[in-house]
Amino acid sequence: MTDLFYQSRLANLKESLKKRKIDAFLVTDIHNVRYLTGFTGSSGILFITKEKNIFITDFRYKEQAGKETKDWDIVIGKGGMLKSIKALYKKSLIKKLGFESSISYEFFRRLSHRDIHLKAFKGLIEKLRAVKDVTEIQSIREAVRRAESAFLDVKPCIRQGIRERAIARRLEESLKKNGCRHIPFDIIVASGPNAAMPHAKPTDKKLQGGDLVIIDWCGEADGYFSDMTRTLLIGKGDNFSKQKEIYQLVLEANRKAISHVSIGTTSEEIDRSTRDVIKKAGYGKYFGHGTGHGVGLQVHESPHITWNRKDIIQENMVFTIEPGIYIPGLGGVRIEDMVVAGKRKAEVLTTLPKKLEIL
To answer: Could you tell me the CATH number of the domain that includes residue 186?
Structure first.
C-alpha cells in the first residue's frame, strides 16, 4: 500500500478532530493504529496533534516501526508508554485531549491530569474504516479467494463418517497453505442437531446421512479478512422436505437482502428485507441474530446490519449477508456472502455456489 492512502486516512481523521475542537488525540486500539500507519506489531499508540504525528511503542518494535511507518515521529516509551504520553501532552501545551473510549478504566485513571480536559470518543476511526479504499477491497478480494480455495480443497473430504473436528482441522490447514497467516475465529463445523446452534463449536460427532452441515470460516490477506458460510446436506434423510424448505427460504432471504443493498439505505432496512421473508414463512422465531456485519481489519466491524441499527450504507462499504434458520432437534441453515456496496447495487465478492448441495 502506498503512503498516499495512509496520508489520506490521517487527513480525514484530523479534519474530524478539527470539527470537534480537539487539540490532540490518542489512538490506542491496535487495529486503528494499523489502519492509520501500516504498523503490524502488537504494541503502539498514536499521539496526534494538528502539527505532529507521533508513534509511541516499546523497544521490541523500534526497528519494525521504523520500517513500516512513514511520516511518523517514533518515540520509544522508556518507563512505559503512558509516561511518554504525559510528557508529550505537557510539552505540547494542550488543553483538550481526545481518546478512544475503548481504553481500560485503569488507563484512563492514570492518564488523567488536573490541567487536561479529557474527552472520550466512540467509533471515530471505526466510522472511517467502514468505507474501504481500493487497496483494502483488493486485499479483501484476495482473502475471499484464499478462503474459497481452501474450502474447495477440503470439500471432497466432507462425507458421511468424518468428524466435525476433522473437517475444521483440515480447513484450517488448507487456509494456511493458501496464504492465510491469521485466522480470527474458530472455524464452525456443525452437523445434525448441532447445526441448530449458530455458533456451535466442532465436536467429535460424525457426519450422518440426513445431516445438515453448517461450515463458517474466514480467509486473510494483508491483515484483512473475509467471512463466509455454506450449508451442505449429507444425503436425503427422513426430514428432507423440511430441510429443503428452510434452505430455500434462507437462500431467498439472502438474495432479497443483497438486492436491497444500495447507497443511502439503512442497515435496519436491509435486515428487515431478509427477516420479513423468514417471518412470513412462519420461521421468524428461528432467526435471532443480525443479518450481517462489516468485515475488514477485524472480522466484525461497522456497518452492523441488524434490526436495531440505522447505519447509512455508503459506497465501498464491505459487509456480510448471512440469514439463517435454526430449529432445535432438526438442525439449521445459514448462507453467508460478502458484498461491497456499489453505486447502483451490491457486488457479491463470494463466488461459491449457493444451490443446495447433497453430498
So the answer is: 3.90.230.10
